[in-house]
Design goal:
single chain, 357 residues, 2 helices, disordered N terminus
Amino acid sequence: MTIFFRAGALILLLSMIAACGGGGGGGSTSGSVTSDDRNTGTGQPDNTNNPPDAGEPPAPPVAADLTTNVFFPVFPGMALYYDDQAEPSQMGEALVNGDERVFPLQHPDERVEYITSTTHEVGLKGIYLRAIEGATPVYLDLMFDTPRRILGNALSYSSSGNANVKITGIAGTYKIPVTLNARLAGNESISIGALPAQPARHIRLDMRLSVDIITRALILMNYPWVEPLLDAIPLDLWFVPGIGIARIQQGEWNIQLTAVDGIPQPHVFSVLRLANVNNIVPLQMSVNGDVLTDPQWQQTIYYRTSGENWLDVQYDSTGSWRARLTRTDLAKGVYAATVRFTQGDVTQDATVSLLIR
């Protein structure tokens, strides 16, 4: 069943709920670069011991916003290409409401996900999509009263509260109670074009419209074919450190990230837990596809996930900067750090991810 079918049926469902006086209170939560022709990346860094050719510092610099979450980074000019589409999905200007910043991820087909991204959490604020195709398409605009946490340090999150819904062609705003459950379904490797396999946190969402028994009976009496929408609606998202949402799946419908522009160079370690660090090959550090060979750079490591002191970055005898693992005793999972290189007024960032299997 496609997302368009679900959203179209949802319009009928919302009309019934509004007519029957669906209620709901305030929200509550609980925690339980590819190397194609669209970017300057080179994919897997060169890990040989051969001294690279000296060169000028890479430009233009790409610096991470350390106040956002590494699993949903925000970079000016960042472009995500899904399923080899010609036009990219891009991050819009942040929508600011007090201390809350909502980042719209805008797709070429006019679909938008509204995401909150803070140091420790990623949240879902709402969606905007074309619900019904046709000469006069119908758009669905759904905004939760408060952002729903979907990714953080906890293994799962559960939230409930109202969603404000607007539908073109139907006057007014519907206040619909919605329950959203999010859980970590696994730590996986995911392919993104010509990049080396990237570690991802697989998050499974289950959204349920909260309707009482009488409302449910009325809906099924008039529209029995919408019964699946009264059950939990699953949505799977794969979040990659330093890149963002790499895959979206709902039933048989899915999209896959195939290229990305405007992000710091990704570097990946994938190792078994308790592996001997002396047997793990260091990664040569690159920024914008260029190996860092100038010893004058100053580096600072910012750990962006729980678990620290697993990374060391030094200029060594190869004539370049290289990253080494210092520990592998962390719990199985995905970890990430931003390595910031500075020299005068120039700042260059690189993302280092670690998958402990």
